[in-house]
Specification:
Blueprint: E1 3-7, E2 10-13, E3 18-25, E4 31-39, E5 46-51, E6 57-59, E7 67-72, E8 77-82, E9 91-100, E10 116-117, E11 121-126
Amino acid sequence: QVQLVESGGGSVQAGGSLRLSCAASGYTGGNYCKAWFRQDPWKEREGVAFIKGDGSTSYADSVKGRFTISQDNAKNTVYLQMDSLKPEDTAMYYCAAFRYVGRISSCAFSQSAYNYWGQGTQVTVSS
């Protein structure tokens, strides 16, 4: 059973930076899509950054150029570096993953494709 544990959330002023981490355990062989989603109480959960097993990445337009997703396979950890934060980035951030077989062009799928989830970490950006 895959388990994901996020850390690194907190409160920051607009323009600041935070780095989220997602430590995984239980991965079996094969390739995994990994992603960061976020949700605030008034919106649906949205994917913001995605990374394939080969390291290729995709981003939502709202965070492109400000957020960077990366992974350390030796540590089974995925990171989300968030720079130039805005108040509208305030949300609960979730790490997610699913195992895929074969070739896919990207991991930018909706939340329904992801079957492993962390408990979330809160990010609050004040103006």
